[in-house]
Amino acid sequence: MSRAEARGEVERLAEWIAEAERITAFTGAGVSTECGIPDFRSADSPWRVHKPIPFGDFLADEAARVEAWKRKFAIDDVHGEVSPGRVHRILAQWATQDRVGAVITQNIDDLHRRAGTPEDRLVELHGNGSYAACLDCGLRHELPAMRAFIARTGRSPVCDACDGLVKSATIAFGQSMPPEPMRRARRASLDCDLFLVLGSSLVVRPAAAFPEIAKQAGARLVIVNRDPTPLDAVADLIVRDDVGDVLARTGRGDD
Ligand code: NAD
Ligand code: ZN
Fold first, then answer.
1. Which atom of ligand 1 lies nearest, measured to the CA of 34?
2. Handedness of CA 12, 17, 21, 27 (dihedral sign)
3. pLDDT of residue 47
4. Average pLDDT, the chain
5. Residue 2: how many CA atoms within 13 Å on its side-chain side?
6. CATH assignment of 38-81+127-170?
7. Distance from the CA of 162 to the center of ligand 2, in angstroms?
8. Residue 126 catalytic?
9. Catalytic annotation, pick one of 50, 88, 112, 126
């Protein structure tokens, strides 16, 4: 796409954002790359080195659990301290101003919440990697204590309240999707007239079904992503450019 064409796409996006009564945003790893967190599919992604452990292995095997924790901490250490980027900040502002009804995210990096997106507008489909939780009673556990326990004992942590297994509060491969966020994401997809996909490859299911649900329910579907996605053919508008630049250039982030 030429620069001029890209400008035309961004103008159209800005018009559609201004016209929309209710916007639902759907974000993927691409909104956090500018913050220093690599996405999943890039060749140099640390996820390729520290491959996530499937949920069944985590449940079945103590050695797999310890390994899962080690890989989680290795990934966290790759990016270290990060701060929200432009997309997080703009969406938080729009959500606070009631222009965005919901931010559905596949990300586990906590950056939408930290940017100020109200929690009742934020749907974390794959959980949140900034804390841990007991798989049995749901009690929250903090990561530094988990890290210290593993370093001290070489064992995976269990819950003080119920002896259940404690795991990073994210949805692992093979773990079932959390029902409440799925229900909220579905409602937000049905309840919007503009659905914005921002920085997602749209290959992870069932999350990638939500743009289709919105489109079928009559919303305009816009995909802002550097690479092609499987839903490009059904989108009303595709902007293949840097997502932070694009959203900032809609001119709607500062008012
Ligand atoms: P993905 O890695 O599959 O795709 C990211 C997409 O963003 C790619 O198509 C890439 O072209 C695009 N992209 C990257 N930087 C961009 C930029 N600056 N501007 C525009 N486009 C950009 O990510 P996904 O679709 O979210 O799925 C990955 C899965 O892995 C998710 O389930 C998620 O839970 C997890 N994940 C999360 C994080 C995070 O929390 N930040 C990071 C990596 C992976
Ligand atoms: Zn418990």
1. 18
2. positive
3. 67
4. 93
5. 3
6. 3.30.1600.10
7. 4
8. yes
9. 126
- Alpha-helix residue ranges (DSSP H) falling in 20-97: 46-49, 55-60, 62-79, 86-96
Determine the distance separating the centroid of ligand 1 and the alpha carbon of 236, expressed in angstroms: 21
Residue ranges covered by each domain of the chain: 1-36+83-126+177-255, 38-81+127-170
Q: Given a cut of 50, is residue 204 above it in pLDDT?
A: yes
Is CATH 3.40.50.1220 what the domain over 1-36+83-126+177-255 is classified as, yes or no?
yes
Q: Are 27 and 107 in contact (CB under 8 A)?
A: yes
- Confirm or reject: Cβ of 204 under 6 Å from ligand 1: yes
pLDDT score recorded for residue 52: 83
Q: Which atom of ligand 1 is nearest to the CA of 27?
A: 26
Percent of the chain residues topping a pLDDT of 90: 84
Between 27-41, 80-94, 121-135, the lowest mean confidence (pLDDT) is in 27-41
- pLDDT tens digits for range 67-78: 999 999 988 888
The two beta strands, 166-170 and 127-134, are antiparallel
